[in-house]
């Protein structure tokens, strides 16, 4: 073997141990996560909400929750259509199993994909002289947190979200490694694929645009040339911009209806901090977070030790005095414009660097974490903080432990100390994970605390005595559900508004008149908070609405209750839905608890011109004229709000109260 061949084979030999250690760690983490996720498999009530839209798509009713009403009930557009696609391809009888398997595969695949991206980040570190290992750290933290395993299935988009994040991370790292290389057809194609992935952000989750926009800004400002900038804008924007135009013209709003129902731009800092503590406290999560931060700092410091400067210039000495004038002319002070171009060029080329990629990812993760704390978090324990946690752990998903070949230099001894510290950090993280992986919230299955946060999976499996509820039929064991199905069979032919009672085995019915009001269709409506299990156990010709407003724009457009339960802080009284459904206004057709005056007042309040325009925007036939009208009205309708009390809404709209009230209202 020649000397050059020996030199080329040396780095390859050094890869054997790092690749082997990475492979063992990645396989172990992936298998453990898959086992844990499978043991805790389930479909949440909110996961069933998505499947109602999928059922309507498969039935030819369009991307709607209730046939004939264009309301976007699902927050993740991409997740809805992915589940629909695989349900259509497989022809599965139970779409619940499609959602479960797709979510599980995406969740489990996200871990080794993210670990691979991080391994590439440290690739040159572990192939330097010495003995190098790549050990899991951030990946262990993530899989040890029970909510991560709960929402690996659940029917929600968590698995899709972290898979998208992991794919984007790998693409970004690969892009940063192409710095300084000549552009090729492959590198340009890879760059546009990266831009496309980043552009998917708002379709994965609306707040995911934070990460997507930051990545696209870095790409746009990098040294790619005007043509590639135009191409990346087109590639990144074609799907999200196209869908946004469709959303505005079809649904007549700017965001999915849950974002309006939950007032995603609002703030509840104190509730958000409590939500953060609700995730950290049961698992002592601060311990591995501190370890991850310390390890990250150590790796950053070690990487910067004696880092050679790539931009150093070596100036040739001047040969003789007679050439001095020519040399001075050649090195004349550049103009202000030239200096500006040099600085911007240096800044632009510096963006394509792993350090910038890591900084961008960390910034996005911090912004998303702060956003959710400001928003107040969620009512499901840990769910919305899982993605920020996953993003922030990306730079330390795996960490290098490199023992230098010699200890003769000070730098080598520093690197040895760093390797020992990182190894101790990995060991402490594994110890923590073993200790807390089975922890649970106190009284999780029986009570919902004053903060409104609940371990959703534990709550449902306790109340249904089913360790793995997956199908809508499983949820018939939940209080009220079987009685609701029976009541639908009873009322379906005549129509009516089915309302919950305090008795779990009984539902009230607000009757419809013999002659329906003009323009109001006779149909059966169920009005209940648990939208998923209700809608999936109801036929598609039964209208299912909720007082919180996820599927009911009228409720979504009310103001947020300041002290309401997080994620449930809107509550529209049933008098509104009775009035809007064309129900009777007097007894015996009304339930005993309902005021006939409130129904009459709601009937008048519903005639408010802006409210009528909102109904027209999503009900009835969809035409080109309606598309144009919705497109121009979407901004206004997105921010439209009504008063929750019918009498206050009448006053707000300048309407006249009905004269046939039993009691006088102020």
Describe the protein.
The chain has about 675 residues and is mainly alpha-helical. The chain is about 55% helix and about 5% strand. The protein is built from 29 helices and 6 strands. The strands form 2 sheets. It has a 4-stranded mixed sheet, with helices on both faces. A hairpin with a 6-residue loop joins strand 3 (about 495-500) and strand 4 (about 505-510). Residues about 1-10 and about 310-325 have low confidence and may be disordered.
Précis, in short:
The chain is mainly α and 666 residues long. The chain is 57% helix and 5% strand.
Please outline the helices and strands.
Blueprint: H1 3-39, H2 45-58, H3 77-90, H4 95-121, H5 123-126, E1 130-136, H6 138-144, H7 146-150, H8 158-177, H9 185-199, H10 201-204, H11 209-221, H12 226-250, H13 257-261, H14 269-280, H15 286-304, H16 324-330, H17 336-350, H18 354-375, H19 386-393, E2 398-404, H20 410-436, H21 456-464, H22 481-491, E3 496-500, E4 507-510, E5 524-527, H23 531-536, E6 543-545, H24 553-556, H25 574-580, H26 596-605, H27 609-618, H28 624-638, H29 646-653
Parallel strand pairs: 3-5, 5-6
Antiparallel strand pairs: 1-2, 3-4
